[in-house]
Amino acid sequence: SLLQELQMSKYGSVPSCPGCKKSVYPVEQVFAADRKPWHKKCINCQTEGCRNMLTTKDMHKHEGHNICNKCYADIYSPKNFLAEGEETASDKRMRLAKEAEERDRRRQMGEEEWMKEEMAEKGAFQFSFVKIADTVGIAP
């Protein structure tokens, strides 16, 4: 049980850190959510950019580092296979961000300016409103 693990033996040993398996002295110990003593440097996930606090249940070893369940799943989970035309969640977020940026740009420059710019990008199709009026037969 937890109480037996934390108790010192009759010879005065100290508990060991679940992360590095070394002794954790009272001055340097930090308690995790499961109330086990850890070293301060061992208690956080050591994946770059992730600082989740570890417990003995959700700690995994990867290349000599302690990592959390989420990072472990990101590394070792099976890859998602997509059908033709499907997009991943990250691709969808990027697409939606680009669409929102495009909408903001359209609002700023106005729809008429946007239409002229879009037609100019096509290159082969040159137009002017006067030429369209002449073709259709609209009198000014």
Brief digest:
The protein has 140 residues and is mainly alpha-helical. Helix content is 39%, strand content 9%. Strand 3 and strand 4 form a beta hairpin.
Word description of this protein:
This protein has 140 residues and is mainly alpha-helical. It has 5 helices and 4 strands. The chain has helices at 2-6, 69-76, 89-109, 111-122, 129-136, and strands spanning 29-31, 37-39, 60-62, 65-67. Strands 1-2 form a two-stranded antiparallel ribbon. A two-stranded antiparallel ribbon has the order 3-4. Strand 3 (60-62) and strand 4 form a beta hairpin. The longest helix is centred in the C-terminal third of the chain and has 21 residues, at 89-109. It is rod-shaped.
